[in-house]
Description:
Helix content: 40-55%
Distance between the termini: 19 Å
Number of strands: 5
Number of domains: 1
Mean pLDDT: 82
CATH architecture: Alpha-Beta Barrel
Order of helices and strands: HHEHEHHEHHHEHE
Structural class: alpha/beta
Number of helices: 9
Low-confidence stretches: 144-167
CATH superfamily: Phosphoenolpyruvate-binding domains
CATH topology: TIM Barrel
Strand content: 5-15%
Amino acid sequence: MARYISPQYQEGFRLECRAIKKVRENFQLTNVWVMLPFVRTTWEVEKVLEIMAEEGLVSGKDFKIWIMAEVPSVIFLAEEFCKYVDGFSIGSNDLTQLILGADRDSGILEAMGYFDERDPAVTRAIAHLNRSGSSAWENSFYLWTGTLCIPRIYGIFGAVRHRQHQR
Length: 167
């Protein structure tokens, strides 16, 4: 997400915001929402939301702004992030990689069992995010994963709505 607020790309991000606004208004595609990727800090979110507001995109009843929970800082500061956005989408591949320090593209580490979305550190992180978000919102989580073998992760969610997507 850092590129959205960088001086080198900010105008490109503004153009993306205008395109989203256009498809929502001109083409009546009001189901188009925004999900901010690879968020690291709340100040990044503040700056991005400021730019989006300047371009006419503000969270409301029919427009939601979500963040990808891929970076551990989002997990640790989930309560603070809840103040800025409408939901989290869990990027389980990146989150696993960053929590375990295991490159998901390393065949050696994967063969040794290091890259596993079911690892207790990862499932505890997702459970913490769930608890934090559940107290702030209702029905505000999606789980994105590249694997099929994650029933234990689903069990964390209880009554919270979730959906699996393949990358």
